[in-house]
Amino acid sequence: MSKRDELIAKYAADLKDKCGVNADMDLLTKVTIGCGPSIYNADSATVSGSDESELSTVKNNFLIKKLGLKDGADLDKGIDAVMTTYGKSNRNKYRAVVYYLLTKHFGKESAY
User: What InterPro entries does this protein map onto (predicted)?
Assistant: First the structure.
């Protein structure tokens, strides 16, 4: 089992245990691959739900550039909804899981 496959299995378990979501493994795999090498770095593999600059980066680089969404208050609401689903008190929010949840939230599976 490759390192990436191990991480995908970990992300699927996180989705099930912390978010109550049964992952679409095909989409989760594509989202994880889309994260690139960031998933292997301890700092970049997670998203800080309380860091405004980090959330701004997620909004600009993922929602607007990757998913092609228009900037607006609904993007902030979507990010907030995903952070609530993942659990605001949960310190380790994996980037791939956050991106997966955002992709599902905005119905942009077609981007992958």
Answer: DUF2853, Jann4075-like_sf
